[in-house]
Amino acid sequence: MKVKGEEYRTVWMAGSSVFLIEQNQLPFSFEIFEAKKYFDTCMAITSMVVRGAGAIGATAGYAMAQACLEAPEDDREDFLKNARFEIESTRPTAQNLFYAVERVYEAGKKSTEAAIEEARKIADEDAADSRSIGIYGNDLIGQGYRIGTHCNAGWLAFVDYGTALSPIYMAQKQGKDIFVYVDETRPRSQGARLTAWELHNKEVPHAIIPDNAAAWLMAQGKIDMYIVGADRIAANGDVANKIGTLEKAIAAHEYGIPFYVAAPTSTIDLDCKRGKDIKIEERSQDEVLYQTGIDKNGNLNKVLVCSPGSEAINPAFDVTPARFISGIITEKGIINAEEDLIREIKKQT
Ligand code: MRU
């Protein structure tokens, strides 16, 4: 994607370093973060320098490749086992993280070069998959559509076009007149900060809406469809995605609005039979209690926005039951969220 006239990838590796777009600084400043060691890359995932299911998957793959580079010859096996454990412990919910680490770890048993090659291949596959998702998803978007989206499932979240936003970019490219309602997505505001930044950057008409406004807009017939991403899809079609997705899906169902999930087949976890088996990350209560933004002088500040002394609860994801999902837009086509179709499409990978 182009930022200020220059082409960037969501994540890349050069030499032994991994380079990331510092998402904690967006939308206020665009900075590149260099992770020199696999441990720095782990910290970047945990602290959400990089976030979004696919982006952390590709990053975790590169972290595993870095670990191969760093492994001492006389202790390679144990070093890599431990590195794998550390990388997998960074965040628990996104399937792509575990998928990528597994692939690069296995390749690393052959050689370090094979591990680096595998990590690059995963990022390239993600780019190709997200492009296909855009092509299939675009078919669902009619002229003049007003589309709702939650969190950020754009190119910051998935190499290289995003998942939920990829069909929107494709529709725009084809000259369709579209408008996007961007859920702000408290507590970390990935919608208000990141999706809005991406759409603004690509000149896609949009507006940020408070999280609690979506159902009201649906009730008034102002939203034609919803497209969201996914962090993990269970075998029965239940989908874990950013907290708040579930209530949007229920509201869309109530008002007869198509609700689509856009995700590649690499996000499907057949070992996970149903949504309730998905591990949901609990994050720090500070994310609810404090907000970060810039003041009039352009300084980044963190301020308390809740009653001092109160505690907060912060589940990062929820699970939407398959029955609320109109379809899953994958790189191989659009399928109903049904177990036999999910197994079938996963078999083709
Ligand atoms: O906690 P985050 O920001 O890493 O959340 C993950 C997500 O970005 C989403 O839930 C998203 O909708 C799917 S990512 C392609």
Describe this structure in words.
The chain is of the alpha/beta class. The protein folds into three domains: 2-130, Up-down Bundle (Four Helix Bundle (Hemerythrin (Met), subunit A)), CATH 1.20.120.420; 135-280 and 316-348, Translation initiation factor eif-2b, domain 2 (Rossmann fold, 3-Layer(aba) Sandwich), CATH 3.40.50.10470; 282-315, no CATH class. 38% of the residues lie in helices and 19% in strands. It has eleven helices and 18 strands. It has helices spanning 38-46, 53-70, 76-88, 95-108, 112-138, 165-173, 190-201, 214-219, 245-254, 286-289, 339-347, and strands spanning 2-3, 6-7, 11-14, 17-21, 32-35, 146-149, 179-183, 206-209, 225-228, 232-234, 239-242, 259-262, 268-269, 290-294, 300-304, 317-320, 327-330, 333-335. The strands form five sheets. It has a seven-stranded mixed beta sheet, with helices on both faces. A four-stranded mixed beta sheet has the order 13-10-11-16, with helices on one face. A three-stranded antiparallel beta sheet has the order 3-4-5. Strand 3 and strand 4 (17-21) form a beta hairpin. The chain starts with a strand and ends with a helix. The structure holds 5-S-methyl-1-O-phosphono-5-thio-D-ribulose.
